[in-house]
Amino acid sequence: MAKKKKKMPGLNTSSTADISFMLLIFFLVTTSMDTDSGLARRLPQPPDKEQEDAQIDVKERNVLNVRLNAAGALMCNSEIIEISQLRDRAKEFIANPNDLSTLPEKHAKEIDLLGQCYITDKHVISVQTDRGTPYSVYFQVQNELVGAYNELRDELSRSKFGRPYDALNDEQKLAVRTYYPQKISEAEPKNYGGN
Amino acid sequence: MAGFKKKESREMPEMNTSSLPDLIFTILFFFMIVTTMREVTLKVKFTVPAGTELEKLTKKSTVSFIYVGPPTDALRAQMGSGTRIQLNDRYAEPREVMDFVAQERQGMTNQAEQTISIKADTHTQMGIITDIKEVLRKSWALRINYSATRRN
């Protein structure tokens, strides 16, 4: 007689769906899809010994002093202003559109794609905080300053390339960034607000 | 006869569910890949400020977080309500940030891209933030990100 065929009983896989459903639900619960966002900043390099001794001289017209006190009040050069006014102030300071003698001096510079430009590459925005300044105020000030740069860059790229800054290619972005270099300096905090 | 035939054809054939596990597995793998587990339990409370000029944190693998704020309600009894810094799973002093940064950097493949995201409460005083920033500067972690929500 022929060998009797031994048949393997089929594995019951009906619960596989349940198992994978359970895993799926676990990952659904633990997952966090939201991407974090924030205000990206770059800190200056740590100071060398020599650098600390040699103070860099900056002409007064090239500096925009932004001071924040412990109460969260904002002083821009020697005026007390609101945070909402800061963006326009900063834009005027950075661009110096009318070439005023009180605003940063302009230098001729050859930039790829843009040609000969007169830019305020020596300007510095100095943000000085008190140890008691609320973080929210500091953040809004940073936000406005970065916003001022972004708006200027966007205006420039629209007039030169006909596209918003975000749509430019790397080379064009570099040209626009060279035209408006971001120069926000943060001095050591003073403790002049009491506390 | 005709009526009998009709009745027979009405019976629904059973649906073949043998591919259901495969389907679920596909969705499962999708979630396994996109998921990022929250590695720390928060010990500080914070609401981040709202801003307009935000950038997204794209490369998750190069980002480390520093949390700043008052202790959570459950821990307030022991820890008080002063502002605290949280690194990984514990409270820390500003100077400990340096070790934290070095430790985080070791596990990274692209160390030059290291970004520190500061998640600080809006009511924090700048003193503590400045201390953290000074330490970050000394430890050459220069790319930072003030975590915030979008506002219009």
CATH architecture field of the domain at 50-150 in chain B:
2-Layer Sandwich
**CATH class label of the domain at 50-150 in chain B:** Alpha Beta
Report the sheet with the most strands of chain B, covering strand number, pairing sense and barrel closure: 5 strands, mixed
Shape of chain A: elongated
The overall pLDDT of chain A, averaged over residues, is 81
How big is the Rg of chain B?
26 Å
The H-and-E topology of chain A, N to C, reads as HEHEEEHEEEHHE
Uncertain regions spanning at least 5 consecutive residues of chain A: none
- So what's the overall shape of chain B? elongated
Biggest sheet overview of chain A: 5 strands, mixed
Percent of residues of chain A in helical segments? 25-40%
Which structural class fits the helix and strand makeup of chain B? Answer: alpha/beta
H and E string of chain B:
HHEEEHEEHEHEE
Given helix and strand content, the structural type of chain A is alpha/beta
Radius of gyration of chain A, CA atoms, in whole angstroms: 29 Å
For this structure, the CATH topology of the domain at 50-150 in chain B is Nucleotidyltransferase, domain 5
Please give the number of β-strands of chain A: 8
**Most extensive interface, residues per chain?**
A-B, 45 and 54 residues
Structure description:
The complex is a heterodimer of chains A (195) and B (152). By secondary structure, chain A is an alpha/beta fold. Chain A has a domain at 63-186. Chain A contains 5 helices and 8 strands; from the N terminus they run H-E-H-E-E-E-H-E-E-E-H-H-E. In chain A, helix 3 packs across helix 4 (135-161) and helix 4 crosses helix 5 (170-179). In chain A, 24% of the residues are buried. Chain B has a domain at 50-150: Nucleotidyltransferase, domain 5. Chain B has helices at residues 2-9, 20-34, 73-79, 97-106, 126-138, and strands at 50-51, 55-56, 63-69, 84-87, 90-92, 115-120, 143-147, 149-150. Chain B is elongated. The N and C termini of chain B lie far apart (73 Å). Classes of the chains: A alpha/beta (195), B alpha/beta (152). At the A-B interface, helix 1, strand 1 and helix 4 of A face helix 2, strand 2, strand 6, helix 5 and strand 7 of B.
